[in-house]
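Lab meeting notes turned into a lecture example. A postdoc, R.K., suggested we walk through two folding results consecutively so the class can see how the record format repeats. The first protein's sequence and structure tokens come next.
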Amino acid sequence: MSIADWLEQSVGGSAPLLIYLAFGLIIFIETGILIAFFLPGDSILFAAGLIAGSRDDMNIWILITSIFLGAFIGDQMGYVLGRKYGRSYLERHSSPRIDRMIARAEEFYAKYGWSAVILARFYPWIRTFMPPIAGIGKMNYYKFLAANALGALIWGCGITLLGYYAVLIPGLKESSRGIAIFFVVLTIVIAVRNYRRARKDRRTPPTTTPM
């Protein structure tokens, strides 16, 4: 059995409730847990919309509510942990690649401030590190709360709805299941590749320049 066949049977045949919970949990993990920064959230969201659009027994509003909550709670957790534990929370998973991502996220936050929390949603990897960096930077809690909710709404719900309404394009509904499987397979491939690269970077000792 191929991966595509397995995904079609497992995802396509799952109960709607399990699909709602699964996608909400995946988005929560991708946004709230540092070591899951390699998950390609954009592809996951688009695939979720395609799956919902290709099935008659799924409610898109329940799906995007689950995704919104996953994205919102994930960022809130990252912010609270960053505010409570400070920079030691980021350094706990230090590696050359993660250090570069942290540096990029810090530059992004310094440049855009409050709006960085919203904009970072559309930048893979940076969105995972932005909440703890905002917490470390002592961003006002209510400002972060508002930016987090707006970002989760635009990013999480927006991309999912794009996938959902893409099914309405003439001629696409019949092939939407295959397209959804393609995005899920692509998500898995990218996630595995990024995870292996992150592990490789973590094992690589830092280079020192001779004096």
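The second example is placed directly after the first for contrast:
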Amino acid sequence: MALLNASLRKVANLDPMGTEIRHLSMAALKENRRIEQSSERIAPADLRDPSLIALWRYWLDKCPEGGLPLRSEIDPIRFPRLMPRMFIVNVVGEPPVFSYALVGEENIEAHGSSFKGQDLRNLDGPWPGYGASLHEFYSCVAARRRPVAARGEMSFLDKGFRRFEAIYLPLADEEGQVCRILGAAHYSS
């Protein structure tokens, strides 16, 4: 448990560039709870997959000082080899409702279904607690207004052992509000 808490403090202490932030609030620590039982958040700087790192760097290059990249400035087609692993989540309303606008084919294969257009909370039907967990996770990504990365196992699926690593990048509308979350994942057995 002490090792996990030290890891959470380390992740909570990083800015979008992956560098350490000196001031840490209790709220930041609480944000870094597990996504689901078999996965955890990591610093984007700790990503291993080169294509996910490239997407994160592209987001950073488009990021204005003190703000978020506009959705209109981000072109996922710049990453054709990553498109099958990409997803875009719509963020609508307050409190936010999250639904997938784009789901790449490798994501569909990994989960066994396409969730395009569905409120994420509806995923609790096939996998109890998963939709609520995703909703809470995406709420944190939108509220933090910073990139988040995760790594772990998709043990809730009855498809055998499946590991993943993913990046989640918030995007803003013209008013500066988070309107989308661009993401991509790398899956392995």
